[in-house]
Amino acid sequence: MAQARMRRERVGFGWRPANTAPSDYGALLREFAACETSGLPLRVSNRHSDATIYDCPETNLAMRFWHDTGHVLFGLSFELDDELELADHHLEAVRGEGFGPDTMEHQLLHADTFGQTFFQLCTGLFVGDQVRFDTNCTLFGVEEAVARERSALRTGR
C-alpha cells in the first residue's frame, strides 16, 4: 500500500477497481494520459482479487496500480522482457524496505510477479488462485507451481 500511495502522489491520481481495465499497453498509455489530465483514478482490474497473497483485495488493487503505472513510468510494455524488468523494479523496492531474498515477503512477491508472468507465458491465462500458485512457487519452484496450476485448471480444482 505504501508503494501505491507514493506512486499516487507522484502521478497525481489514484486508482479504482473496475470490471474492465486497460488490458494492453496502448490502452494503458491512453488511460494514464487521460488520468493525468483529468485527475480521475486509473481503472485497475478487480478480477481475481479474492485469493491473493496480500492482506485484502484492496491491497491487491493497490499492487495492480503500482504495477500498471510502473509500465508507463518506466516505458515498459506488456512483453515478457519488460514484464520481467518491471518485476525486478518491484523486488528492488521491497529489498529497499529491508525484505531481502531470504524473506517470505520477497519470495512471495517474486512468485507474484515473476512466477505469474511465466504462468501467463506458458498458458495464456491469468492465475485463478494466486495464493495457491504463489505458495507453490515458494515451496516447489516456479516450474512445479506452473505444472500444478495447469493441472488444477484442467481438473477444475
List the helices and strands and how they pair.
Layout: H1 2-11, E1 15-18, H2 25-38, E2 42-45, H3 57-73, H4 80-96, H5 104-123, H6 130-140, H7 142-155
Parallel strand pairs: 1-2
Helix pairs in contact: 1-3, 2-3, 4-5, 5-6, 5-7, 6-7
Short synopsis of the structure:
66% of the residues lie in helices and 5% in strands.
Structural notes for this entry:
With 157 residues, the protein is mainly alpha-helical. The protein contains seven helices and two strands; from the N terminus they run αβαβααααα. A two-stranded parallel sheet has the order 1-2. β1 (15-18), α2 and β2 (42-45) form a beta-alpha-beta unit.
Number of strands: 2
Q: Which runs of at least 5 residues are low in confidence (pLDDT < 50)?
A: none
Shape call: globular
Mean pLDDT: 93
> What is the tally of helical segments?
7
Q: Compute the gyration radius: what is it?
A: 15 Å
Main structural class = mainly alpha
Strand order of the largest sheet: 1-2
Which series of helices and strands comes N to C? HEHEHHHHH
Helix fraction by DSSP (H/I, runs of at least 4): 55-70%
Beta-strand residue percentage? 5-15%
Tell me the span between the first and last alpha carbons: 31 Å
Main sheet record: 2 strands, parallel
